[in-house]
């Protein structure tokens, strides 16, 4: 999609570093809108920004928001990866609600039995491999990698 290619150009480090926060947030919103259209989502998730020490971002199906950590805005490639990853989770929730295909059924089973990693005192995570290897996470990482790989060849 030509529009996605144009948007990825805006995330190139050479362009991104000269943008102010409002310009960056506008590009992020345009990217979310374009991904929503390409994924066939009926509703475009809202974008919310937070400051935190850990999470890059997350999708909240409760209020249909893509939540992004402002601390990682300085790394546009990682930001694109996070946005695409979380948008894929929005798509998975949407498709699970439709339940029209085998993949939709896989989404709903995985989402209903989602495994979250548990932080351990002193560092590390319990159930991290189980979390990382579940279908919805593998699918979201693969989708996000399409965009970060494309950025390498601009």
Strand order of the largest sheet: 1-3-2
How would you sum up the global shape?
globular
Write down the secondary-structure element order.
Answer: HHHEEEHHEEHH
Strand content: 5-15%
Number of separate strands: 5
Radius of gyration: 16 Å
The parts where pLDDT drops under 50 for at least 5 residues are: none
Mean pLDDT: 95
Helix count, per DSSP? 7
Largest sheet: 3 strands, mixed
Percent helix, as a range, is 55-70%
Distance between the termini: 14 Å
Which structural class do the helices and strands define? mainly alpha
Overall description:
The protein has helices at residues 2-10, 13-16, 21-39, 76-98, 102-112, 128-133, 135-152, and strands at 46-50, 57-60, 65-69, 118-119, 125-126. The protein is mainly alpha-helical and 154 residues long. Strands 1-3-2 form a 3-stranded mixed beta sheet. A two-stranded antiparallel ribbon has the order 4-5. Strand 2 (57-60) and strand 3 form a beta hairpin. The longest helix has 23 residues, at 76-98. It is globular. The mean pLDDT is 95.
Secondary structure elements and pairings:
Elements: H1 2-10, H2 13-16, H3 21-39, E1 46-50, E2 57-60, E3 65-69, H4 76-98, H5 102-112, E4 118-119, E5 125-126, H6 128-133, H7 135-152
Parallel strand pairs: 1-3
Antiparallel strand pairs: 2-3, 4-5
Helix pairs in contact: 1-3, 3-4, 4-5, 4-7
Name some characteristics of this structure.
3-stranded mixed beta sheet; mainly alpha; single chain; 154 residues
């Amino acid at each position: 999609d030509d529009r996605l290619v144009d948007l990825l150009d805006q995330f190139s480090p050479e362009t991104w570093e000269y943008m102010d926060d409002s310009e960056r947030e506008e590009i992020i919103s345009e990217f979310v809108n374009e991904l929503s259209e390409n994924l066939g989502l009926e509703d475009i998730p809202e974008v919310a920004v937070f400051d935190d020490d850990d999470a890059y971002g997350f999708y909240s199906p409760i209020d249909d928001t893509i939540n992004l950590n402002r601390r990682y805005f300085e790394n546009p490639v990682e930001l694109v990866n996070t946005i695409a990853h979380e948008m894929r989770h929005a798509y998975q929730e949407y498709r699970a609600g439709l339940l029209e295909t085998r993949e939709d059924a896989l989404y709903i089973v995985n989402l209903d039995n989602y495994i979250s990693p548990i932080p351990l005192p002193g560092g590390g995570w319990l159930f991290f491999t189980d979390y990382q290897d579940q279908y919805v996470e593998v699918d979201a990482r693969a989708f996000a990698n399409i965009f970060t790989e494309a950025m390498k060849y601009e």
